[in-house]
Amino acid sequence: MPDTQRPVRLMFVDDESRILRSLALQFRKDYEVLTESDPHLALHRLEQEPIDILVSDQRMPAMNGAELLARARALQPQGIRILLTGYSDVDAAIQALNDGEIFRYLTKPWNPREMDDTIARAAELSLRQRAARAAPAGAAAGADIPHGIAILLLDGDPLVEARVLELCAVDGHHLHRARQVDEAIAILNREHVDIVISDLRLGEHATAPLLKSLAQVRPHALTIVTTPYQDTQALLALINQAQIFRYVLKPVSVKLFERALHAAVTQSRHWRARPQAVVARAAEAPRDEGERAAVNGLVGMLGRLRGRFGAPV
Amino acid sequence: MADIGALEHLLKPVQALTPDVSIDEVARRFLLDEHRAFLSLPVVDAVQRPCGLISRYRLQDIFMRRFGRELWGTQPVSKVMNPAPLVLQLGTPFETAAAQVTTRLQYPVTEDFILVDGAGRYRGLGTVPHLLKAMEARLLQRNQALQHTLEDLKQSQAQLVQSEKMASLGQMVAGIAHELNTPLGYVGNNVDLLRELSAPLFALNEALAHLSAYLGDPATDEEALAHALEAADAARRAVDAGTLAEDFRQLLEDTDYGLRQISELVGGLKDFSRLDRAPSDDVDLNDCVRAALLIARNNLKGRVEVRQQLQALPPLRCAPSQINQVLLNLLNNAAQAMDGSGIILIKSWADEAQVHLSVEDNGKGMTPEVLERIFDPFFTTKPVGEGTGLGLSISYRIVRDHGGTIRVASRPGRGTRFLITLPLRRAADAAEAGAAPAAPLQREIEHA
Ligand SMILES: Nc1ncnc2c1ncn2[C@@H]1O[C@H](COP(=O)(O)OP(=O)(O)O)[C@@H](O)[C@H]1O
Ligand SMILES: [Mg+2]
């Protein structure tokens, strides 16, 4: 079967076989479903055949989910990865995000309808990606893309600032800085920003709503969150609703921060060179009504951005 | 501080003598009512500086000699006075003053002490009994303060014990709550799937009811009957009886299993959390091990393999919730001693008089220096927030309160073994029964 017509293939990995049976039954009518209770066997499978969506448990005897997802990413970077866990474990969530670049962090017990929606969303992205890969390459837009990309810094931490300044000076990136949220919105409306580096607080305000609306309007923008907080719930919301790219704890380790920064720059350049590529990113709307209204308000303020870059809705 | 001016309270203004006053005159002054309380009278020079002290004792001594009064009566007091009496400045702290007085104290007490101001001028007398009384009052006060401190300490110790209890309880509740999420996940999903899967069955039932109504009605025309037949057949085809039956069976079986799992966890939580349950007579220590393992599972799962070698044990009198706390502590410590994966071996066995339980891990072990201190309150090698340093000190106390011993052997890089031994008959019970008291508590540490 040609790659483009193959049904979307899901793989669930969990050491509890009853979870696997239940999920397989739930999704078998719409997708090709594989299940593995041993992460090593799952990796073996990933070496053999393309898996479009990988959903993994976190705590398993042989290997934890975050590690499996990181290794799956190395094997199939185009795949979409999801963590499904009953434990709130910040370290695991950070590892799954930073090394596994997860699309969602889902919790057990899950709501079947929401799970359906999430998988459907991922499947749709996966199919579009596949179609875009199969389409003949457009004009080599990469040729006229300037080497430098644009970074918006929403963090006054001297260590972070020094690293970013150094990187911009060496590689010729454009740096924008804002000390307030409305300043940040003005910059985002004016400039094409590839990477946002943000603390969760800026001046008097929380930046999460801004990051969440930015993710809705422009999925290409990569967010690196730098924060001293370690709250699983907040992190979960940032992954699912702001599609953050990396989460770096403060005080930042220079090595970790630089690694995150380089990953973001590489990814941004890659996308800039391929404007037609489908980005497998799609933010969920916040659950809380008040927060949703705030995010929608900001989405409106970022309206010009949507028009300019024609992000897929 | 209360010391400032403390000596002022001891000050008695007494008219001082001059050096040239005659001894007869001194004797007369001693007889005055106002001088009754004093053992001695001060002598000061022209600028009011003390230059001596004359005591009743000295005077008696003189007058009792033969012709003493006749020989000495007209002599000036300066000839017989003590030229170097104890002089204290009013500003001297009480403690210092008391020390000075008591070091010079001789028995019998024959003199008072002189109090002077900052410039060394005579202000009055102080008496030793008065000073001793003040010292006693102070001691009493100090004692009360100590008593309070002791009570505070006891209370905060109780709070610490409670907080360690709460910490392990909290950890355990969080663990169980998370553990519940897995069965809750598939049970909930299965119920949803069963609802979905059963929908075509209801549709089939309805189509069959229609068909049967048509069949039973002689007035039905051919066409309607054909329609009904077709509808029933379609509904039947929508139900793949074989697969459906198998799916139903599997989903129901898994759901049953999940519900049992959930009630087991909740039951474990209930058993475990009866923290202040009174001691009970017939506790099977192996049940405690199982309860603690259920609770600790969250911490162990996926990393640590637990092996159990539990032999049948006679019933034991103990407070199971406390023993559970000890076991949970040992299990958590063992798990925390491992980088990545490891093995915990739990053994239990009994002899005529005792029950033994060992918890062994192949974690990082301890150096002799660490081993020396592990039972000390607050001793921890773990980062803040991870270790309270109270787990073992509390475990030690619990085991001691049960009349038992806790022993440990450890080797860096190899692992650690804790051995708990509990007597089948408590020392107190034994004493009641008139038996000899149990051997004193051992607190053994071995370097394997
Ligand atoms: N099984 C073990 N292996 C290695 N070290 C241990 C073990 N159990 C206890 N310890 C040491 O004893 C210390 C005190 O333990 P404990 O009183 O339970 O307090 P905490 O666990 O909060 O540090 C620990 O910090 C650790 O250094
Ligand atoms: Mg401990």
Itemize the secondary structure elements and their pairings.
The complex is a heterodimer of chains A (313) and B (448).
Chain A: E1 9-13, H1 17-27, E2 32-36, H2 39-48, E3 53-56, H3 65-75, E4 80-85, H4 90-98, E5 104-107, H5 112-134, E6 150-154, H6 158-171, E7 174-177, H7 181-190, E8 195-198, E9 201-202, E10 205-206, H8 208-217, E11 222-227, H9 232-242, E12 246-249, H10 254-273, H11 289-301, H12 303-309
Parallel strand pairs in A: 1-2, 1-3, 3-4, 4-5, 6-7, 6-8, 8-11, 11-12
Antiparallel strand pairs in A: 9-10
Helix pairs in contact in A: 2-3, 3-4, 4-9, 6-10, 8-11
Chain B: H1 23-31, E1 40-44, E2 50-55, H2 56-63, H3 68-72, E3 87-89, H4 94-104, E4 113-116, E5 122-126, H5 128-216, H6 222-238, H7 241-273, E6 280-283, H8 285-300, E7 304-310, E8 316-318, H9 320-336, E9 342-350, E10 354-361, H10 368-373, H11 391-401, E11 405-411, E12 415-423, H12 427-432, E13 445-447
Keywords (chain A): Phosphoprotein
Protein name (chain A): Response regulator
Domain Response regulatory (chain A): 9-123, 150-265
Summarize the structure.
The complex is a heterodimer of chains A (313) and B (448). By secondary structure, chain A is an alpha/beta fold. Helices cover 48% and strands 16% of the residues of chain A.
Largest interface: A-B, 21 and 24 residues
Text of the CATH class of the largest domain in chain B: Alpha Beta
C-alpha geometry of chain A: globular
CATH class descriptor of the largest domain in chain A: Alpha Beta
Q: What is the helix content of chain B?
A: 40-55%
The domain count of chain B comes to: 3
Strand arrangement, largest sheet of chain A? 2-1-3-4-5
Protein name (chain B): histidine kinase
Enzyme class (chain B): transferase
Catalytic activity (chain B): ATP + protein L-histidine = ADP + protein N-phospho-L-histidine
Organism (chain B): Pseudothauera rhizosphaerae
